[in-house]
Amino acid sequence: MTRRRLHLNAFLMNTGHHEASWRLPESDPYAHVELGHYVRLARIAERGTFDSLFLADGPQLWSNFAQRPAGALEPLTLLTALATATEHIGLIATASTSYNSPYNLARKFASLDIISGGRAGWNIVTTAGAEAARNFGLDAEPAHAERYARAAEFLDVALKLWDSWEDDAIVADKAAGVWGDDTKIHPPRHRGKYFGVEGALNVPRSPQGYPLLVQAGSSKDGKAFAARYAEAVFTAQQTLKDAQDFYADLKSLTAAAGRNPDHIKVLPGIVPVIGSTQAEARANEQVLEDHIVYTHGVARLESLLQLPAGTLELDGLLPADLPPESSIEGARSRYTLVVELARRERLTVRQLIGRLGGGRGHLTFTGTPEQVADAIEEWFTLGAADGFNIMPAVLPSGLDAFVDHVVPILRTRGLLRTAYDGTGSEGTELEGAGGTGRPRQTLRERYGLPRPANQYVTPAPGSPALARV
Amino acid sequence: MTRRRLHLNAFLMNTGHHEASWRLPESDPYAHVELGHYVRLARIAERGTFDSLFLADGPQLWSNFAQRPAGALEPLTLLTALATATEHIGLIATASTSYNSPYNLARKFASLDIISGGRAGWNIVTTAGAEAARNFGLDAEPAHAERYARAAEFLDVALKLWDSWEDDAIVADKAAGVWGDDTKIHPPRHRGKYFGVEGALNVPRSPQGYPLLVQAGSSKDGKAFAARYAEAVFTAQQTLKDAQDFYADLKSLTAAAGRNPDHIKVLPGIVPVIGSTQAEARANEQVLEDHIVYTHGVARLESLLQLPAGTLELDGLLPADLPPESSIEGARSRYTLVVELARRERLTVRQLIGRLGGGRGHLTFTGTPEQVADAIEEWFTLGAADGFNIMPAVLPSGLDAFVDHVVPILRTRGLLRTAYDGTGSEGTELEGAGGTGRPRQTLRERYGLPRPANQYVTPAPGSPALARV
């Protein structure tokens, strides 16, 4: 068996994950709509042999327009442009199951997977918040459980669509005038509670079969959904213990759902703030905190905690009588994380905003490259992570620093690949693709996952069992 | 005033517009899902200084899967990839107003417009056919008039979304910590019959303000829609007289709708089949006709004419008692064109299929490069066209032949540009963009159209009147 390797995803967000990053002299406040900025970031990540890069998304303009970069290039569009500017790195786009139709979205991901040579991934979100709902004809967001029920049906339909062409449905017999084999086309004929989708997709089955399925909700509904569908999970965890518990829980839920727990990769988010000494790293962090506008932070925190404006005092603690998670219809797991962080460390509102300003609840590792690598190795080897979602506080400099200084240490320790592999190097046999001459690994191969079997095809007797991811 | 120039659009469709093109020895039957094929086509069109290229679309798998290439890369995705492989050419994607939501689609077009540096166009379709409807939870297609009513509301909302950021909404004052100016954001707050869209777009206003608006329906509803919204119109016309009538009618409807009739460009589709002699051109055409499978053609014609299977005889004429156009819920103007073509020229079903096999109702010009250029010049100078939608029967060879042999003649005659211009060369003042240093023309500038004013901004007193396109 090949040695277990760390998986790294670069979470790209305009000038960086720290809310004040755009105010630094080095930052371009228009970066969020500049293709060149993202091409540069993608190439840095590829230099660091990251598995993938990732774009978050919500179909609404955030209300803090005045305070920080708002708006963005639509993720699937931007990642398609990045596909042509990169060679190896996986391309994970966020898209909502609440505000898309399965036929349209399945087509777009299949198209990106073909164009990128098998590098597409889908971060499946249900999209919390009334602002998004009101852009799609609704008065309020659908209830949490309702969103997840729709997401599950969405996935079932999308999987049928992606399987609606068998891999060898194209015959291309010019002499006979026969282009395709009708018997290898499988219309979903789906009629469910949320969707009716009769016909087959109008895109052939893509190199990966379908995009890598990624998920990031850590609520009870979110974990159940991940256990059933997800192949990679982004999560916000503040302590090693919490991360270990989450990791063990998710692997066990996945096994209970009848899937191989190795086929779900857990990637906690970390915000690395690096300096050549610990003092320098801390000074870098202080520069960012000095640029936070705290009045804005208070307003956002009140909104997250669903408190009336003016409730929180900057140098006080959170109120003791906050509502329970179950009463929250928005981003549940984020709510709980923030409340628990504040209580565990007895943070004032000001301190809490400083902590959240960097990673919005994700763990900030501040230190030397060795210290950051140590923390990564500890989490990776102690059952807390299969890899990490790297969220630089400032972009591009923070990603450059990670690739220049932390990646070499991880490679020296044998934790991270030193170059991208050609095909199927991580013990994964690429079903049906031997001999197609595809020169590079797909995203799913890079994560050590099998190419999914087609649900409409019965494996030939004697062929290896094909795991349904 | 600058000399009036011809506008050329390249309509790209896998191995070509002739239904039998995929069977030729030169053709790649997998071309429809190969990015390299489309990159090659786009670069040929750019060598020919075409204004734009265009991809048709329908959200369903065509039923003649066995007979000819089916499925395709989703147009917005493919054009985004082509944006990075080209420098000048416009990128026009078809997208449906019946099966998209305005917020999602407006974002994607704004993103493509930004990524391409102002080269995006939208071919607005209402999508005929029950097959598409059944992929989106409906049992049958919405009625023709209903589809157009939804399209009009869709456009109104999309225009509000594209105008929801003023061009200078981003302040980027790092010292003050102020990124955006809230007063320059204009949420649509739209509540209509078909859509509710409350909030502003989450993409800034793009280089062109919004994509070039293109339309291709030539029914009564289609022309009324075009007169109100379209800046370019694709149309199928079989005779000079019909094309002149359509041209005059559309310009007059546009003026009656309160718009400048120069701000709608009429582009009939033509299928050029070229040979160095007329006999060679005709022989090239014959090769294609020899590859048609006529039994398939009969079935498709019966479907278009809404006749029971087995009604048509290959060597007979069309029945005399076909239903009137007004009873057709599908592609109305195509229906009438086909019936009139067959009757005018007394074509047998076999002959009609041969004619439709090339351009599906668009005019085929078969001849030498001089003859093709003569026909183009005649239509252009006699009030039948502002340019042409070039639909090569075979791709890439037919596009190569047009660019190598017809384009030089058009240039010698002063009808076509010899190179792409930098900025604003065709008498168009680019509103508000002087001094931004944008090096290339936008698609709208290339078509000689003004950048649209923002509906939420009152022009300053004394500034030139800003035409609402």
Keywords:
two-stranded antiparallel sheet; LLM class flavin-dependent oxidoreductase (chains A, B); disordered C terminus; eight-stranded parallel beta barrel; homodimer; 469 residues; alpha/beta; TIM Barrel; Luciferase-like_sf (chains A, B)
Molecular structure report:
The structure is a homodimer of 469-residue chains. Chain A is α/β, with parallel strands linked by helices and 469 residues long. Chain A has a single domain (7-285, 360-446), classed as TIM Barrel, CATH 3.20.20.30. Chain A is 36% helix and 13% strand. Chain A is built from 14 helices and 13 strands. The first copy, chain A, has helices at 35-47, 75-85, 102-115, 130-134, 144-162, 220-229, 240-256, 278-290, 294-304, 332-344, 349-359, 369-381, 397-412, 443-446; strands spanning 7-11, 52-55, 90-96, 120-125, 170-173, 178-180, 190-191, 196-197, 212-215, 232-235, 265-274, 363-367, 387-390. In chain A, the strands form 3 sheets. Chain A has an 8-stranded parallel barrel with strand order 1-2-3-4-9-10-11-13, surrounded by 8 helices. In chain A, α7 (240-256) links the parallel β10 (232-235) and β11. In chain A, 55% of the residues are buried. Mean pLDDT of chain A is 91; it is low at 423-438 and 465-469. At the A-B interface, α2, α3, β6 and β8 of A face α2, α3, β6 and β8 of B. Chains A, B: Residues 422-441 are annotated as: Disordered. Chains A, B: This is LLM class flavin-dependent oxidoreductase. Chains A, B: Keywords: Flavoprotein, FMN, Monooxygenase, Oxidoreductase. Chains A, B: InterPro entries: Diverse_substr_monoxygenases, Luciferase-like_dom, Luciferase-like_sf, NTA_MOA. Chains A, B: Belongs to the NtaA/SnaA/DszA monooxygenase family.
